């Protein structure tokens, strides 16, 4: 067995020290070691974008980055988008309001790509939005609604939401989740 | 803080509104847990062992090296299963839990390895030595139907079947009228052949499964669309009562039909029982490609016309290339080909559709369920007729289109919409008939798909003391938005705001029986069950109000959370509910039911509950240098009866349209000579991205409240996929003068077609 290597990285603002194997990817570390399962696994070859996270301000496919390469970097995942008080970010709120979510599996990656795009270019053209999200597949194909959501943020139509994320769902047991909707009005 | 008294449902929450998706917050925060996200600290991890070829005789399996790795718990082969090895399937029980004697397709599992970590299971699987001999195999319709073709299924699996000595699993024949007489009368006859490629669902969430001993029973987790069907299957395999098999079905991350029926759940169950531990198997995307796909199809269509454009006959023959095991594929062939003559009144029809077995991945349900394959051929042939008759392609369709009440398929559900309204709307939105720029073309196609032919859905609805509501529904919300629509029905009927409605799904121990989530049925069938339960609660509220106010029950009206008394005054729901329930409180619970019984004398086992009708118009241009097609405008109009949630209707319609562009322009499996799929995975199998969309996409719907679902709704999630290929190919022909009859219309294929024709071109 390979020997574990201690790395330090910042994840959603928190410094984490983790022992990782040299061949483990950032995706494996996020999902398996840090239990941040919002970042999804699909193609594992950097084509689908489901595992997109932001590393030092750039969107990357976490499946293509070795965990050791992430040492010393600052990583943001979908779990880090909402405010500390649980308020949805403008992009999250816009995705919700514009109906840019169907099955939802690609959405964390879409959000992180869109976030990186807007941080780099706060006023992208429609074509730049299309191109900025070209690495994120959505088989439900709600691309039009995703563009509308990003455009709404560009146009300043979506401020930080008053909607708060519910308490992190998911007890030990997973099956029948009732979707908790007991939110503030 | 949550309010202690519900504010009434707003118009956005109710029917016809487009509230934020129920479950949407978890989906934008990462909190939504798909199966692979579930915490399972004590679970072992599984990996399938497969061969690098399609059909092979298994000579010996040596797991010594794999088992020598510390942390490897089990290598299970068919020999370790109950004998004879159990077989299963929704139509025929022909698929073994693990391969017996020989593999039948590229990806057919010969063993399942279980280890402490996923990585270890993968390493161990690679160490399992399978001595095997590659055997002759068939991967195309022509090879499978050849007289000397090796048989995919042993005739012993098909007792009493006259076709058992062939690879034709079944031949479905639908016919009416006198075809020969009609052919003699026809003034123009056109005949063409078309092919439709093998494509895959490619839900972004790969399939995943888990099983664990659960007290005196068994718990099974699956990304499945049909948890109740899975419960019955597993209970039968392990000989437990249904009540001891609990199926958890977390919301799938996309399904598209591929997650309807069990694939590797039985193998995972047997492994978990053997080890007495939870076992989890999360497929890779490549493995998912090897688990589910759509049937390829080769069609021959001969259509006869009268000089005035009337279709006199349709003679349709379609060979669907299904896989090595039946799964639901033969139902796809039978049901998908049944309405192949289209939404038209045709006096004589003969449709022959065959399920052709091959040594390929078992084909399954996939959005459109067998209709897109043959609609591609039939609508394209209709265009050939229009060309021969020098008729407008819109006009020829309107001339033959069924009108409401027409029995365009004898003995089937009559035409249930004002379909011409959809066609005219699509034509108008697309500017049909207006001049086009040089090098552009337009195409139009119509499509129908039969809705569910049988169904049984129960729903429990509980009205709690504070006016909030819990809805239990066995539907799977895989993105189509069932949670939201079912919650809206409850909000509409019981007056609760949407965020006071909780929809519970995906646990067979809690949620009552639902037959399945398929055929765009849930809004209609489960929706009616929820509506039925809500109306039963309203009846109990009326009885309470009558008792409280000393008035006749029949004179009390309960609607949308408001109680109207005979004196004209109204009470809020809570003003009746709270005193009505009395000092002990409690709740009102009701069970709703929708039943659509089978009819043995109908060829499909029942007439469809509704038709999905769609009209698509495409404007496209072709780059003659590269063969690349640009979709300038894509107009889709579906007849939805009533849009309970217009935004979700638009999203399903656009999603189906764009998925249709996938099989039309880019998607197809590529095989090598030993039946290996050479383009497994996301790099070499392309689906539409944000850069592949139409320049303009217009989704419209027609609402005449004429469907069988709540408030006149119909199912609508598949219609917009039916027409894409024929409409795009027709636009390409108008733009270039070249007809292409094989999909997908890749730049390479289009370029070659243009080269072949180039001497004729101006």
Protein model, in words:
The complex is a heterodimer of chains A (185) and B (762). Chain A has 185 residues and is α+β, with helices and mostly antiparallel strands. Helix content of chain A is 26%, strand content 14%. Chain A contains 5 helices and 5 strands. A 5-stranded mixed beta sheet of chain A has the order 2-1-5-3-4, with helices on both faces. In chain A, a hairpin with a 2-residue loop joins strand 3 (52-55) and strand 4. In chain A, helix 2 crosses helix 5. The longest helix of chain A is centred in the middle third of the chain and has 14 residues, at 107-120. With 762 residues, chain B is an alpha+beta fold. In chain B, 27% of the residues lie in helices and 24% in strands. Chain B has 19 helices and 28 strands. In chain B, the strands form 7 sheets. A 7-stranded mixed beta sheet of chain B has the order 3-7-1-14-11-12-13. The longest helix of chain B has 25 residues, at 525-549. Chain B is globular, with a radius of gyration of 27 Å. The mean pLDDT of chain B is 97. The interface between A and B is large, with 71 and 83 residues.
What is the oligomeric state here? heterodimer
- Which parts of chain A are unreliable, with pLDDT below 50 for 5 consecutive residues or more? 167-185
Structural class of chain A: alpha+beta
| Largest protein-protein interface | A-B, 71 and 83 residues
Shape of chain A from CA axes? globular
How many DSSP H or I helices of chain A? 5
Mean pLDDT of chain A: 89
Spatial strand order of the main sheet of chain B = 3-7-1-14-11-12-13
Number of strands of chain B: 28
**Element-level helix/strand string of chain A:** EEHEEEHHHH
What is the distance, rounded to the nearest whole angstrom, between the alpha carbons of the first and last residues of chain A?
A: 54 Å
What level of helicity do the residues of chain B show?
25-40%
Tell me the Rg of chain B in angstroms. Answer: 27 Å
């Amino acid at each position: 067995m390979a020997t574990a290597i201690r790395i330090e990285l910042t994840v959603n603002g928190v410094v984490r020290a983790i022992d990782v194997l040299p061949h483990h990817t950032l995706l494996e570390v996020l999902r398996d070691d840090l239990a941040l399962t919002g970042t999804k696994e699909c193609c594992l070859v950097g084509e689908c974008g489901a595992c997109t996270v932001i590393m030092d301000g750039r969107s990357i496919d976490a499946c293509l980055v070795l965990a050791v390469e992430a040492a010393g970097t600052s990583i943001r995942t979908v779990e880090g988008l909402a405010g500390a008080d649980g308020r949805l970010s403008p992009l999250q709120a816009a995705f919700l309001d514009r109906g840019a979510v169907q099955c939802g599996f690609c959405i964390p990656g879409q959000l992180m790509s869109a976030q990186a795009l807007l941080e780099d270019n706060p006023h992208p053209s429609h074509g730049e939005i299309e191109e900025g999200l070209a690495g994120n597949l959505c088989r439900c194909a709600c691309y039009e609604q995703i563009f509308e959501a990003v455009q709404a943020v560009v146009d300043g139509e979506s401020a930080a939401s008053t909607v708060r994320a519910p308490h992190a769902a998911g007890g030990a047991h997973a099956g029948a989740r009732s979707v908790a909707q007991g939110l503030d009005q | 803080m949550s309010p202690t008294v519900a504010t009434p449902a707003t118009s956005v929450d109710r029917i016809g509104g487009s509230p934020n998706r129920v479950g949407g917050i978890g989906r934008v925060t990462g909190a939504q847990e798909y199966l692979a996200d579930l915490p399972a600290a004590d679970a072992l991890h599984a990996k399938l062992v497969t061969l690098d070829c399609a059909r092979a005789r298994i000579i010996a399996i040596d797991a010594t090296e794999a088992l020598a790795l510390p942390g490897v718990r089990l290598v299970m082969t068919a020999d370790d299963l109950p004998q004879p090895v159990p077989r299963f399937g929704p139509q025929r029980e022909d698929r073994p839990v693990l391969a017996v004697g020989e593999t039948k397709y590229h990806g057919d599992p010969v063993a399942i390895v279980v280890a402490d970590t996923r990585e270890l299971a993968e390493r161990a699987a690679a160490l399992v030595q399978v001595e095997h001999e590659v055997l002759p195999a068939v991967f195309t319709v022509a090879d499978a139907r050849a007289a000397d073709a090796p048989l995919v299924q042993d005739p012993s699996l098909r007792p009493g079947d006259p076709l058992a000595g062939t690879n034709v699993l079944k031949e479905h024949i639908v016919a009416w009228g006198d075809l020969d007489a009609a052919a003699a009368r026809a003034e123009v006859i056109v005949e063409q052949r078309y092919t439709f490629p093998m494509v895959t669902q490619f839900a972004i969430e790969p399939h995943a499964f888990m099983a664990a001993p659960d007290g005196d029973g068994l718990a099974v987790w699956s990304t499945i669309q049909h948890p109740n069907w899975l419960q019955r299957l597993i209970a039968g395999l392990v000989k437990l009562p249904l009540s001891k098999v609990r199926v958890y079905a977390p919301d799938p991350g996309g399904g598209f039909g591929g997650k309807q029926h069990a694939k590797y759940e039985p193998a995972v169950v047997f492994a978990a029982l053997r080890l007495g531990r939870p076992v989890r198997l999360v497929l890779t995307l490549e493995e998912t490609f090897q688990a589910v796909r759509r049937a390829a199809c080769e069609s021959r269509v001969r259509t006869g016309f009268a000089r005035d454009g009337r279709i006199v006959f349709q003679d349709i023959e379609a060979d669907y290339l299904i896989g090595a095991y039946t799964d639901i594929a033969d139902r796809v062939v039978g049901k998908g080909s049944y309405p192949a003559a289209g939404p038209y009144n045709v006096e004589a029809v003969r449709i022959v559709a065959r399920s052709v077995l091959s040594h390929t991945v078992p084909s399954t349900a996939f959005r459109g369920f067998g209709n897109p394959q043959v609609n591609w051929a039939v609508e394209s042939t209709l265009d050939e007729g229009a060309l021969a008759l020098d008729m407008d392609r819109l006009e020829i369709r309107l001339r033959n289109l069924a009108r409401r009440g027409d029995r365009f398929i004898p003995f089937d559900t009559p035409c249930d919409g004002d379909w011409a309204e959809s066609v005219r709307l699509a034509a108008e939105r697309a500017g049909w008939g207006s001049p086009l720029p040089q090098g552009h073309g337009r195409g139009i196609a119509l499509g129908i798909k039969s809705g569910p032919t049988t169904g049984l859905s129960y729903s429990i609805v509980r009205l709690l003391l504070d006016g909030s509501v819990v809805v239990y529904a066995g539907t799977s919300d895989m993105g189509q938005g069932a949670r939201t629509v079912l919650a809206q029905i409850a909000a509409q009927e019981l007056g609760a705001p949407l965020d006071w409605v909780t929809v519970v799904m995906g646990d067979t121990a809690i949620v009552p029986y639902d037959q399945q989530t398929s055929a765009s049925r849930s809004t209609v069938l489960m929706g009616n069950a929820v509506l039925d339960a809500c109306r039963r609660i309203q009846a109990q509220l009326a009885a309470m109000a009558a008792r409280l106010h000393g008035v006749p029950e029949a004179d009390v009206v309960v609607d949308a959370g408001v109680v109207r008394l005979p004196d004209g005054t109204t009470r809020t729901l809570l003003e009746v509910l709270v005193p009505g329930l009395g000092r002990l409180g409690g709740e009102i619970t009701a069970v709703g039911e929708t039943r659509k019984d089978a009819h043995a004398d109908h060829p499909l086992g029942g007439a469809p509950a509704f038709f999905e009708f769609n009209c698509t118009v495409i404007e496209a241009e072709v780059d003659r240098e590269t063969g690349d097609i640009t979709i300038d405008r894509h107009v889709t109009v579906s007849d939805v009866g009533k849009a309970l949630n217009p935004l979700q209707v638009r999203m399903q319609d656009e999603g189906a349209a764009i998925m249709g562009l996938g099989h039309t322009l880019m998607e197809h499996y590529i095989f090598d000579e030993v039946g290996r799929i050479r383009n497994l995975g996301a790099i070499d199998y392309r689906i539409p991205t944000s850069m592949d969309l139409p320049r303009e996409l217009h989704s419209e719907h027609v609402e005449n409240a004429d469907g069988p679902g709540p408030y006149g709704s119909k199912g609508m999630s598949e219609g917009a996929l039916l027409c894409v290929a024929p409409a795009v190919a027709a636009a390409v022909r108008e733009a270039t003068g070249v007809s292409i009859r094989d999909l997908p219309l890749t730049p390479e294929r289009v370029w070659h077609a243009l080269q072949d024709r180039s001497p004729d071109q101006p």
